[in-house]
Input
Amino acid sequence: MWTAMAGALAAGVGPAVAQTSEIESAKSQRDAVREEAAAAASELDPLLTEDAELEAAVAALDAHVDAQEARLEATRQAIEAAELDSDRIAERTSEVQDDILALRARLRDQAVDAYLRPAGESLAEMLASNDLNEATKKQALLGTVTDREVDLLDELRAAGAEMLALERAAQDAVDRVEQRRAEEERQLVALEASRAEQQRLREALADRISEVQAEIDALAAEEAQITSTIQALIAEEDARRAAEAEARRRAEEAARLASLSEGRVGAGSGGTASGTGTGAGATTGGTGSSSGSGSTPLPTPATAVGGLTWPLGGAVTSSFGPRWGRMHQGIDINAAIGTPVGSAGPGTVISAGSNGGYGLVVIVDHGGGLSTVYAHLSEIWVSAGQSVGTGSGLGASGCTGSCTGPHLHFEVRVLGIAQDPMLYL
Output
């Protein structure tokens, strides 16, 4: 029976085996990619990892753990199937053993009967019989008994062969169960390791989210104040520059008029007229100069791209915009404590000191309403009113104020309103 079943199954497995092989190959490739991503995720240091990279690592480990759990479930189902096969084989083995015992008993009975009946008895009965037909029937009956003995022997041999096949199948089932259980053990160990890494990164991500939200909330609490401060300081700086420009214009005008006065000739009316004409021309020119000294148009992101330089080297660990339900008004640049921070462009320092959640912060006015903010500094090297150039040292990076770890919080503002720094760098 088992041999027949195996033959029937083998007849139609060709195409199915090929298709299954392709599917398994595709699954293996997919699992290999997932394992590489999971391995890379396991090597991450959350303190030095960008937010997006940390999120991607958690997602990769989630997918890897899901795949491992699916493989473990498949292995357990295979174990159950192998155990069911083993149970069916054991049940059939018991039936065949009973059949063999019954066949042997029947053969034994027939052997005893044949032993008790002499071999020549059938011929003597036929010769002694008064009815030849009756004798022939008796001989045919004896032949039938002999044929049945042969059939019993054939059945016994077939049962023995089936018994051997069942024993081999039983051993194969046991081997499959043992292999699957060993595989299950390996998968469990790997799964537990992956779950530990998954938990580590999940906790790191949760901590990062909590810390970043706390930092952003603290910065948001200072947002209105720093915006108004920047606007007031920019207005004050613009007024100071305008006053200086006006003072220079007046001084230049006075010097020019004095020079003209010294060069006047005598008391001729023509000279007086000439002097008057010259003075009028100078006044007009002075008015034009005064008009030209007004504020320049505000830069727009399109024209400002590339206008500023990076304040320091380092990876951007948190970008401008919404972060986990909060609005991040700048970018965070990874930097060890004490890393020099340079001005992103030429300008004037309009604020240098402590400011709540920003910690030690420097604000530089670049003119035209454009300013930059450098927060969480550990040291400040400049003071308000000081002129700086591109790359001039402003201080050292740190983690003062509300801070998740050593980094520079860098903002770009236009008229005090935060803009995406990446549009200006």
Summary: The longest helix spans residues 132-262. Residues 301-423 form a domain with the Glucose Permease (Domain IIA) fold (CATH 2.70.70.10). The first strand starts at residue 316 and ends at 318.
